Amino acid sequence: MTHTHDSRAKRNVAVLVCAQAFLGSQMPMIFVVAGLAGQSLATNICFATLPISLIVLGSMLAATPVSAIMQRFGRRAGFFVGAAGGAVGGMVGAYGLYLGSFPIFLAGSFLTGIYMSAQGFYRFAAADTASDEFRPKAISYVMAGGLLSAVIGPQVVKLTADAYVIPFLGTYLAVIVNVVGSLLFLFIDIPKPPVPALDAPKGRSRLELLKTPRIAVAVICATVSYALMNLVMTSTPLAVVGCGMTGDLLPGTDLSGLSAAEQRSTFINLASNVVTGHVLAMFAPSFFTGHLINRFGVEKIMGLGIAILGAAGIVALSGVTLSNFFIALILLGLGWNFGFIGATTMLSGSHLPHERGRMQGLNDLLVFGGVTMASLASGGLMNCSGGSPVQGWAAVNIAMVPFLVLAGGSLIWLMLRPKEAAA
């Protein structure tokens, strides 16, 4: 496919950008409030981030069936299934909050994972009809659609978190309306994969695919980038509110005139602002990430992403003032962007079309498996390691180190291999 055939790809990118912007606002909304809601419902604060872990677990388990649906019935069908899962998840989550039931709230979180899984395939769909030259740009532009979701999601939280007597109920009710955005998928134009003939090549097995050096490194770097981003972001609202209530976030600021509830609301709003900055940093670079990949090579951009993730941890460990949170989370988003888009570009060019469903489903199963473990660890590290929010926040960021070494080491190994041996 050459650049002359990219008119269809550009139309699909436009649709997916809009979907990323509007439907994608569900995820920043949930990630801001889910840990705080879990903290209010759970009998043990070590399980505060379990709702986020269940979202990611649902995404991990949904990856293979959603990929199979897309392989058989087309991208549009899979995206509609994802949007429906997100709406039902929001409905069940709202019901759990209404009843004060942590198990029902967790069930809603698990169903929300179906949407998160389908959203993850937007980036692959962008590449389906794109030429080799346009592919990294197409992936980047779709990821850039998250810019608007980064603004919409946290702002909706501010408007809805205390809209009802039950905290965060309004936010989960707002998620249900988000399904209207799924009508955008009526305009997508990606052909259904052809039914393979009996004598068609079957492609490599999952094990053979994972033994391919470029695929293995792409999966490792995607998993590490996404898992570490999730590890830190999941704990951020808890850390901002916790450090605020203990006076560490805004040293010297007198909030004695506010009630405890008003103080908490103030710090929830600050946490929303930090998450907004983070999500903007996740998606804003996408306007030029594809150009950087074309100019400097995918391996260098992935390596830069891993290095920036390390810098985010250093800033977070250097202090817990509001500026530290903002800078660390902005770096975290930027590092995720380079690492994850780079890994997606490397992966999409490393398998054949008839291996697409098998490899992309396997990739997201492994990626979100790692993210699930990270989100499970996040609550325990934040709330149950050390005796204060500051110590818990430090534990979260120190936990990044071995995984950064793994990703960086695998990338260096790939770059040192002969080119023909790395394919």
Structure description:
With 423 residues, this protein is mostly helical. Helices cover 76% and strands 0% of the residues. Helix 7 runs antiparallel to helix 13 and helix 14 (298-317) packs antiparallel against helix 18. It is globular and about 75 Å long. The two termini are 20 Å apart. The model has no long low-confidence stretch (mean pLDDT 85).
Largest sheet: none
SSE succession: HHHHHHHHHHHHHHHHHHH
> With helices defined by DSSP (H or I, 4 residues minimum), what is the helix count?
19
Query: Helicity, in percent?
Result: over 70%
Number of strands: 0
Radius of gyration: 21 Å
Q: What percent of residues are in strands?
A: under 5%
| SS-derived structural category | mainly alpha
> How many angstroms separate the termini?
20 Å
* Overall pLDDT: 85
> Which geometry do the CA atoms define?
globular
